[in-house]
Structure formats: structure tokens, C-alpha cells
Amino acid sequence: MPGDAPFILSSPASEKILNTFHVDKPFPNDKVHEIQIPYLPYETVRTESCITQRRHAVLLVALTGGIASGKSLVAQMFVYFGAYLIDSDQLSRKVVEPHKPAWRDIVDCFGPKILLPDQSVDRKALARIIFGDDTQRKILEHIIHPRIWEEQRTMTEEIINKDPTAIIVRDVPLLFEAHLEHNFTWIILVYVPAHVQLARLMERDGLNREKAQSRLDAQMPIDAKIPLAHYVIYNEGTIENTRSQVEKVFVELRQLERSKDV
Question: Closest by alpha carbon to 40, among 246, 178, 242?
């Protein structure tokens, strides 16, 4: 689909993020097409191998980081520059919508106490249950991850069929923790120091220091992820600074994609 405008998630959140850009040039091709694309997290080696063997020109990029590192902002910046985004948080919400198979399994395992009045899953209540309890967390992952993987596979195929030269960015929060890095061509880490993560998490979720720290401790330390990534976006500065880094990485990825056809 060379020459076409990039796709972008159509949501109030993405619009709010994009409105914070201090851009000095128009969007590519002067417009953006909006479609509803639920996003991604985890994928199997077999599925990704089949896709990359059949459509070797596609760059499948993992975007990871740590809790409260700013992955959502960076993800939307990549969309702005022309990437396709498969967003894991949105997809995790989709698969647990009321009366879907994952929703039924969650209710069976955790009880109706984790439902809101509209019958949707109370994600905050569920988070309180699984953080600090590895057994409960693994039960939840066993329920939702297979459904997420299937959605990801379908979405990836749809994008490849539309654009064989696509750069597909997948937001994968627990990439290294789940040992999924081998499924991707390139890995991008969104980094902020641990103390910045802690402060942002406390402010964002209204947590005290102890609870916020326990959530950070449930993930691999963000500093340990730096040597495992191909690119690192340092996101503790200004939006313009982050945007400049994202643009530089995207330009290089596009050059890599084009070089595969030479």
C-alpha cells in the first residue's frame, strides 16, 4: 500500500495523545485514515514463523518497556510516522468482554465479585487479586493469553494482506518476562528510570508507594531490559525529545524494510 496514509487507532485516547505533539509538518500525505484495530500482545513461535516465511518483507517490531514507562505515547508516535499498531491493552479488553469465553472463564475462576454493574470485568479489582500472587496471575494469563494470541495472528495476517511491506508495531508489555523476543524482527524498549516509573505509577493509579513498588517488582527491572533491545527510546524528557527519537528509529526501520527488496 505504498503512498497511502498510515492507519491509526480511532479512539479518544489516541486523539488526546496525538494532540500533544508539537509538530512542525503535516501528517504523511496530509491525512490519516481511521480504522478500528484492536491490539496485541503475545504470539507463538510457530505462527510468527509461518507469517514471516510467507511474507518475508514484513517487519514485525515489538514495542516493550515497563509499567508507566509511556509505551502508549510512543506507540501512537510510531503510528503517526506510518507504522501499523497492534495494541495489547486494547486487545486484552476485547477478549474479556461480557459473555465471551475468556469472560466466562474469569468469572468461573475468580467469582462474580470481579464484575462491575454492567457485567464487565473490574480490571482494578482483578489487578488487586493477581499482583503479589503468582498462582492467581498465572491462572489469569492461562485464560486470556491464548485468546489474545489468536486475535494477534488474525490481525497480523489482515495487515500483511493489505500491505506486504508493512512495519507492524506490537505493544508487548511482558515481552522478556514471557520469553517472546524471538518472535520479532526488532525490539524497541521504552525506557524511564525506575524512580520515574514509581512516581508516575503512584500518580496515575492513585497508589501508595508500597503498592506501586510491589507492581514494579512483579516485572523484570527495566534497566535489565536495555541490553536485550535493538533500540531504546528514552522517555523521561520532553515530548519533542521522545518524538525525535521515534522518528529516527522509524526512518531506520523503513530503510531496513526497503533494503530487503534490493
Answer: 178
Closest of 60, 88, 65 to residue 253, by C-alpha: 60
Residue 95 C-beta-side C-alpha neighbours within 13 Å: 24
pLDDT of 183 reads: 87
Phi first, then psi: give them for residue 57, nearest 5 degrees: -80, -15
User: What is the SS3 assignment for 110-161?
Assistant: HCHHHECCCCCECHHHHHHHHCCCHHHHHHHHHHHHHHHHHHHHHHHHHHHH
Contact 155, 37 (CB under 8 A): yes
CA distances to 8, 76, 149 from 154, in Å: 18, 21, 9
The bridge status of strand 84-87 relative to strand 33-35 is: unpaired
CATH architecture of 7-90+166-259: 3-Layer(aba) Sandwich (3.40)
* Terminal-residue alpha carbon distance, the chain: 18
Those residues of the chain that have pLDDT short of 70 are 1-57, 260-262
What's phi and psi for 189, nearest 5 deg? -105, 130
Domain boundaries, the chain: 7-90+166-259
pTM for this model (two decimals): 0.73
